[in-house]
Amino acid sequence: MTVSLPGMLAGALTALGLALAVRALLPRRVPLAKLLARTHNPAPPQQAVADTGSARARWAEQVGTRLLQTGTVAARLPAKDLSLLEMRPAALLGRCAVYGLLGMLLPQWMLLLLTLGGLHLPFAVPVAFALIGGVVFVFKCFDDVRTQARQAREEYQFYAASLLERVALARASAGASEALMQVTTSADGRAAVRIRDTLEHARLSGVNLWDALEQLGQDIAVPELSRPAASMALAGEEHAAVTATLEAQSAVTRRTTMAARRAEANEKTEAMTVPALAIVFLMVIFSVVPPLLRIMTF
């Protein structure tokens, strides 16, 4: 019987990974002091509600909950993007763990096919490919979250411009706060629903509506919401000053949004130059190479 050192190392690493996964998923006994602290300081609703999705999503969130207990990992999460997407940090970490596992396994299938084809690679090659694939997929997971947050933030920016214009129109027959509540009652969409829920919660709690809107804009990193709210809080309830402030803030928001869209369009236009150059290069090759080959064969 031949003993292979790479095989023993691979088996040991696999067994260690399985043991750590089982240990992470096993329920732990929480200290009494920590339970009492949770009783006095309950977790926010978005972190306390369990995921009702598939079994894979629940498993991923359990893994993310374990990773979230590490302060180093939790401190590096995009908190504002998660708040904007209403995503739990544990769900993001669990998704990243699943992405990393897939990134480690996918290259192994390709290497297995090469091995079955007769190409024998050193042990360091599959390990390196597994590590690189896992890291790439984890960064891909974070990049997907950033892309979703950027798209959601654009939706909030457009809705903010529309909201300010409608509040300015409704201001003629009601106060600034009343006009804000009126224009948000009949709106739909992700941004509209969240803003309406925030304002309704602030009204029931006795908090100034513009202060609540400003806090929401700061939490989700949408200055198009926080700046007008701060200006309205300083403007008071004077009819002319408030109306002028709303119109000015709406114009600024629309100009900012249009500038961002123009910049995005310019970036996409510049990105199209590379495929265009590649097509031209291929056309030149297909046009020039056959005559050159015929000339060289004479």
Description:
This protein is mainly α and 298 residues long. It has a domain at 153-271. Helices cover 81% and strands 0% of the residues. It contains 14 helices and no strands. The chain has helices at residues 5-25, 32-40, 45-48, 55-68, 71-75, 79-85, 89-116, 124-170, 176-184, 190-205, 209-219, 223-235, 239-271, 273-297. Residues 42-53 have low confidence and may be disordered.
Topology summary:
Layout: H1 5-25, H2 32-40, H3 45-48, H4 55-68, H5 71-75, H6 79-85, H7 89-116, H8 124-170, H9 176-184, H10 190-205, H11 209-219, H12 223-235, H13 239-271, H14 273-297
C-alpha end-to-end distance:
62 Å
Bin the helical content: over 70%
Helix segment tally: 14
What kind of sheet is the major sheet?
none
Note the overall shape.
flat
Question: Which parts are unreliable, with pLDDT below 50 for 5 consecutive residues or more?
Answer: 42-53
What's the order of the H and E elements?
HHHHHHHHHHHHHH
Mean model confidence by pLDDT: 76
Task: Work out the number of β strands.
Answer: 0
Key terms:
298 residues, 81% helix, mainly alpha
Give a brief rundown of this model.
This protein is an all-alpha fold.
